[in-house]
Design goal:
Elements: E1 2-11, H1 13-28, E2 35-41, E3 45-48, H2 54-57, H3 60-66, E4 69-72, E5 80-82, E6 85-93, H4 103-119, E7 125-128, E8 132-137, E9 140-152, E10 155-163, H5 168-174, H6 183-193, H7 197-201, H8 207-221, E11 226-229, H9 234-248, H10 251-254
Parallel strand pairs: 1-2, 1-11, 3-4
Antiparallel strand pairs: 2-6, 3-5, 6-10, 7-8, 8-9, 9-10
Amino acid sequence: MKFRLLATGFKSAADNMAIDEAVLIHISRGESLPSLRFYGWMPNAISIGYFQSLEEEVDLAACRELGVDYVRRITGGGAVLHEHEITYSIHIPESAGLVPAGILESYGKICGGILKGLAHLGLSAKFVPLNDIVLEVNGGLKKISGNAQTRKQGIILQHGTILLKVDVNKMFSLLKVPNEKLKGKLIEDVKQRVSSLSAALNREVKFDEALGVLQKGFSEEFPNIEFVPGELLESEKTLAEELKKEKYGAEAWNKKR
């Protein structure tokens, strides 16, 4: 089975989420091949889960001050700061039988591509349900990847981030916390639980290096798929622009409750 391998570079938050949905719609119509996409975020951005409240989760004034974008995803989960990372999205027809039907099992299968990719960096990572990937760093397990999934129009869309570096202090300067008095303790707790590829390897891991090993990892996890380098169709670009304007770039979507 052929999948497109898409490397769409660094785009705005609204662009990235609009592309994910435009590709899903095209695949569901039979107009595009299933796809595996790698991308980054410019400017830095916070994405929130579908069921979250933007104004309750995110300090919008701080975002404006620091030039940080924001967007609501169509997938669930929590708020994420997209800064020093590589992001992937994979679109798999449910009818293809490439992943288990169960949510937990499908997360594990897809995240297997990330685990195999990280092995090419000499890292032994593991999948922790429901949707995290952790590494052993200095004797403790630390999260380096979070993932989210939705199923629409017969297509499984899973996307997630793999941290190249992490700035927990910046993250908490942009996110709201329920109790400001406990903010310091919460920051220290997260620093103990979250890491990055660069920290784990004691050297800088750049976007292109991570992209290369993740491509290998997905090819190994899904040996029955031929990943063929491709481009977005013009109709996908057009639909993505419409979705960006009418949905992901609109306050009605991002601030809905």
